[in-house]
């Protein structure tokens, strides 16, 4: 048994579903943009740490009586 809806009720349903779709799309876009910004910030921070680590090198001296060599260690 088919139930017929009035035109006004159909318009109200279309309006409601359209508004919900717009709101959900807006929230998803905002979340994706925030996630991209967070990932970009983390990548920049890692690049800065990597650049800092490669700029500074640590030299360790072996003070044992058997060896008088310098040991070079690079930080990751």
Automatic annotation (TrEMBL):
<keyword id="KW-0812">Transmembrane</keyword>
<feature type="region of interest" description="Disordered">
    <location>
        <begin position="40"/>
        <end position="76"/>
    </location>
</feature>
<keyword id="KW-0472">Membrane</keyword>
<feature type="compositionally biased region" description="Polar residues">
    <location>
        <begin position="50"/>
        <end position="69"/>
    </location>
</feature>
<protein>
    <submittedName>
        <fullName>Uncharacterized protein LOC110760408</fullName>
    </submittedName>
</protein>
<keyword id="KW-1133">Transmembrane helix</keyword>
<feature type="transmembrane region" description="Helical">
    <location>
        <begin position="12"/>
        <end position="30"/>
    </location>
</feature>
């Amino acid at each position: 048994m088919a139930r017929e809806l009035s035109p006004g009720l159909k318009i109200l349903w279309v309006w409601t579903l359209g508004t919900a779709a717009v709101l959900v799309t807006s929230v998803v876009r905002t979340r994706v943009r925030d996630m991209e910004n967070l990932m970009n910030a983390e990548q920049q921070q890692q690049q800065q740490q990597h650049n800092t680590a490669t700029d500074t090198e640590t030299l360790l001296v072996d003070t044992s009586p058997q060896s008088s060599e310098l040991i070079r260690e690079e930080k990751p």
